[in-house]
Design goal:
single chain, alpha/beta, Rossmann fold, DNA polymerase, domain 1, 2 domains, six-stranded parallel β-sheet, two-stranded antiparallel sheet, 10 helices
Length: 213
């Protein structure tokens, strides 16, 4: 069946926020524990809702306090530290020209997501935006993708989800949607995923998506 709808994760897929996220996490570690963390441990949280990651990292600190430290630090540096991954702006525009529905499904807050999308000139290209504020259930739960499908009146079997982490892949599969793992981020490699968690497709560049379609 032909694909008609493309859903993208934001962090690590559309936007290179890796440096921003690592910097913000290290700030929280210094404030709460008086030390920095191994970057590999921080990268392992990429794609996971922030509250869940913070609760695991700082069990003795109220999660709301840890999140406030993180977001206060990130607020003033967010726009200047993020950039689109190569080819992503052109890809989204190209998909729209070809008649595809395009949405973003992210675990990020709506405001900061829109700041990034506006910076990239992509906001007007989107038919749908689902953020962590749209549901109490987050990736890998299927709810975020299911909400996007409902907003777009799209069918799961006619949809692709593009993401950089195991949370994106699991969320897509749990919603009955085929998943594409990107190779330009640092969250999850193709070798990390097996069995039901294995992506349906893998691409190394944004332009390679056209080959799948």
């Amino acid at each position: 069946m032909a694909i008609r709808t493309i859903l993208f994760d934001f962090d690590g897929t559309v936007a290179n926020t890796n440096g921003l996220i690592i910097d913000s996490w290290q700030h929280v570690y210094r404030r709460i524990l008086g030390r920095e963390a191994d970057e590999a441990d921080i990268k392992a949280t990429f794609g996971e809702p922030l509250a869940i990651s913070m609760e695991k990292a700082f069990p003795a600190t109220p999660v709301e306090e840890a999140i406030e430290i993180y977001r206060t630090h990130q607020k003033d540096i967010f726009e200047e530290m993020i950039e689109p991954f190569p080819g992503m702006i052109e890809l989204v525009r190209g998909l729209k020209v070809r008649g595809f529905q395009v949405g973003v499904v992210t675990s990020r807050l709506r405001h900061s997501t829109l700041v990034g999308l506006d910076k990239f000139g992509m906001t007007e290209q989107l038919d749908c935006l689902v953020t962590c504020e749209d549901t109490d259930k987050h990736k890998p739960d299927p709810a975020p993708v299911l909400i996007a499908l409902e907003k777009l009146s799209a069918r799961a079997e006619e949809t692709l989800m593009i993401g950089d982490s195991m949370f994106d892949i699991k969320c897509a599969h749990n919603a009955g949607v085929k998943a594409v793992l990107v190779g330009w981020a640092e969250a999850t490699s193709e070798e990390d995923l097996h069995g039901a968690d294995k992506p349906d497709y893998y691409i190394e560049t944004a332009e390679a998506l056209y080959g799948l379609l």
